[in-house]
Design a protein that fits this description.
The protein has 16 helices and 19 strands. With 533 residues, it is α+β, with helices and mostly antiparallel strands.
């Protein structure tokens, strides 16, 4: 395997003695995989990660009660088994006797109790606290309306965890594979505070643990010998390249410097397949949406007519065919197709051809007082650094200019882009993507609930929408619940609470040397299941 050249200009990387002692020295037979991660993580703290490029790394280092296998199916993780009460509200998990942390301490039920309480503690301000809201009192605690001690999680015994839910939640076992449900080492966090995730301080219970983190250069994790299934982990070291420059990572893959690359230039797919072979250039649709948000807090996008006009002006067929080579398909609903029993809601204009949509868009803008003879439209599109996103933003800017808008575009690296949106920064239009955390429409629609401060980036608010979403959580009849969610989505799509553009597809370059990799709807690819030929 080609040597990966890292650290140009990097003077030193701190490797604490405790970490060196915890992991065996590399041997001549050391197996190393180089993963193009697709972006730089904001953090590696499971309480504060929120995007896939963070999840890829953190899920290698920490294991929850359940995990995704290579086919995207949920299987037992730390929990070797579980049972459910007759009323569907109390789960009892039996943890593996041989599940240990990298420092040798056993993984116990208390580690999950601590982690779940940390996620819901308002003082922690965890971005993904809402994922655990099905747990008894979680939402009330996170909203400052209940005491942390009332959270429905209890260590019945060192290796027995009991979780009580607010109501039956069919997707709860799948939800537990999410990074919001990972355990956390209380002793390390209390000792090191915010520095607990640094090399030398971090304690992991997954197949790998962090040894190096050089911003904008590389992140290294090595095999955790204390991991319960370490005997079946074939790769000794993972080196993640955080570059967002797709042309560069494509060249590195071709040169053998990267074994896997997340995200390539989609319009180069046929070229790459001809050059590298179809078996190494992979793309598959998943339960995820590629969308734009419009800042509804200010003009012009505080007006639903304007939001609708801008959405109608986007030629999604052009984006799909010319930019993504049909690896991503046009979308008019926020919830993608493919969730059993659910019919996504679309606006009525979705059936019009593009020329008719543009004419209707101009009419709506005129009605709202914009366009020719009306107030000027100046719009800035923000996107995270990525060639595909840049091409989309450039194309959309031209489409919006055709209805009378003056459009500029700007980009930030992925961690800064999402941090800005999560912190409530002002903007006009911004690119976003959402990968399903679990296969339920609620996981998408919850992003537009008024109270969702972390992910309702456009600050959309509609009382009827909120009312339907709240009612859906109480509805026991599955068909009625899905109808409520459909009705809620219809409201949001009629007002363009978000602007769906495409059903997202995951794209990967994967070397023939990598074995055990499979495309799946969850877009989860744990290194522990991979091997190198």
């Amino acid at each position: 395997m080609s040597l990966h050249k890292f650290g140009r200009g990097v003077s030193a990387v701190l490797l604490a003695g405790s970490m060196l002692a915890a992991f065996a020295a590399p041997s001549l037979a050391e197996v190393v995989i180089h993963r193009g991660n697709g972006g730089e993580p904001q953090t590696l703290d499971q309480a504060h990660i929120s995007i896939d490029v963070e999840g890829f790394i953190v899920r290698d280092m920490f294991e929850g009660l359940t995990v995704y296998n290579p086919d995207g199916k949920v299987i037992p993780g730390v929990a070797e088994s579980w049972s459910l009460s007759d009323d569907g509200t109390v789960y009892t998990f039996k943890l593996r006797d041989n599940a240990n942390w990298s420092d040798g301490q056993p993984v116990t039920a208390d580690d999950f109790v601590f982690a779940f309480k940390r996620m819901e503690d308002p003082k922690e301000a965890a971005e993904y606290a809402n994922i655990l809201y099905p747990i008894k009192n979680a939402e009330a605690i996170n909203g400052g309306k209940a005491d942390l001690a009332t959270l429905g999680v209890k260590a019945v015994a060192p290796k027995t965890l009991e979780i009580t839910l607010e109501r039956p939640t069919p997707y709860f076992i799948e939800l537990l594979a999410h990074y919001a449900a990972l355990p956390a080492p209380k002793w390390a966090i209390e000792k090191f505070g915010g520095d607990w995730i640094k090399p030398g301080n971090i304690v992991c219970n997954g197949a790998y643990c962090l040894t190096e983190n050089v911003p904008n250069d590389h992140i290294t994790s090595v095999k955790n010998p204390k991991f319960w299934d370490a005997a079946n982990v074939k790769i000794d070291k993972v080196i993640y390249n955080p570059s967002e420059d797709q042309a560069t990572t494509e060249r590195m893959f071709e040169a053998g410097e990267l074994d896997m690359v997340y995200n390539f230039q989609a319009d180069q797919m046929k070229f790459l397949q001809g050059k590298l072979g179809k078996d190494q250039v992979l793309a598959a649709p998943d339960l995820s949406s590629y969308y734009y948000v419009l800042d509804t807090r200010k003009a012009p996008f505080d007006d639903a007519r304007v939001r609708t006009a801008f959405s109608m002006a986007v030629d999604r067929d052009f984006l799909s065919e010319k930019i993504f080579s049909n690896t991503q398909m046009p979308a008019y609903s926020f919830v993608p197709e493919g969730i059993a029993g659910y019919t996504p809601a679309k606006p009525d204009w979705a059936s019009l051809d593009q020329l008719d949509r543009e004419d209707k868009a101009k009419e709506l803008l005129k009605e709202a007082g914009y366009g020719q003879g009306g107030k000027p439209l100046k719009v800035d599109i923000r996107f995270n650094t990525n060639e595909n996103h840049k091409k989309v933003a450039t194309a959309v800017a031209d489409m919006w200019k055709s209805i009378g808008a003056e459009v500029t575009i700007q980009n930030l690296d992925v961690k800064s882009h999402y941090a800005y949106l999560q912190e409530g920064g002002s903007f006009d239009a911004a690119r976003c993507g959402w990968q399903a955390d679990y296969a339920d429409p609620e996981n998408f629609l919850n992003l537009m609930v008024t109270s969702n401060k972390s992910f309702n980036y456009g600050h959309y608010s509609n009382a009827k929408f909120d009312e339907l979403m709240k009612a859906s959580y109480e509805e026991r009849d599955h068909a009625k619940r899905l109808q409520m969610l459909h009705d809620a989505e219809q409201i949001a799509m009629d007002e363009q609470g978000v602007v769906p553009l495409m059903v997202h597809a995951s794209t990967w370059l994967v070397s023939n040397k990598v074995k055990g990799f499979a495309m799946n709807g969850a877009n989860e690819h744990l290194t522990r299941f991979l091997s190198l030929q």
